[in-house]
């Protein structure tokens, strides 16, 4: 992500050198438009923030943090998480609670 952002900022710098006026908000827009679909949620969150809160540095850091989070979550061992394979556990507990309620009444 850092390399990608640096490439976009290099293009922005080249545009500025050639005389084009490119604001930081324009730079942010170029970066956000260039992101892949896996960054869609980050992109939407950033786009819905008021422009007052958006700085080039904060957007860059948020994208780098998001990339780190996505990379870390790819390596989480999900095999240790136990999910019920069916509703048998729920049904057994429901039946047990129902019998307890009937006995109580």
Give a nutshell description of this structure.
It comes from Araneus ventricosus (Orbweaver spider). By secondary structure, this protein is an all-alpha fold.
Give the SSE map:
Elements (H helix, E strand, L loop, with lengths): L1 H16 L6 H10 L6 H8 L8 H19 L13 H17 L1
Detail the poorly predicted runs: none
| Fraction in beta strands | under 5%
Domain count: the total is: 1
Distance from first to last alpha carbon: 63 Å
**Secondary-structure element sequence?**
HHHHH
Outline type: elongated
The helical percent reads 55-70%
**Main beta sheet: strand number and arrangement?**
none
What is the rounded Rg? 25 Å
Determine the structural class based on helices, strands and strand pairing. mainly alpha
What's the pLDDT, averaged over the residues?
A: 81
Q: What's the total number of strands?
A: 0
Number of helices: 5
Protein name: Retrovirus-related Pol polyprotein from transposon TNT 1-94
Structure description:
It comes from Araneus ventricosus (Orbweaver spider). Pfam families: Retrotran_gag_2 (PF14223). This is Retrovirus-related Pol polyprotein from transposon TNT 1-94. The chain has 105 residues and is mainly alpha-helical. It has one domain (1-75). Helices cover 67% and strands 0% of the residues. It has 5 helices and no strands. The protein has helices at 2-17, 24-33, 40-47, 56-74, 88-104. It starts with a helix and ends with a helix. The model has no long low-confidence stretch (mean pLDDT 81).
Main attributes of the structure:
Retrovirus-related Pol polyprotein from transposon TNT 1-94, single chain, 105 residues, 0% strand, 67% helix, mainly alpha
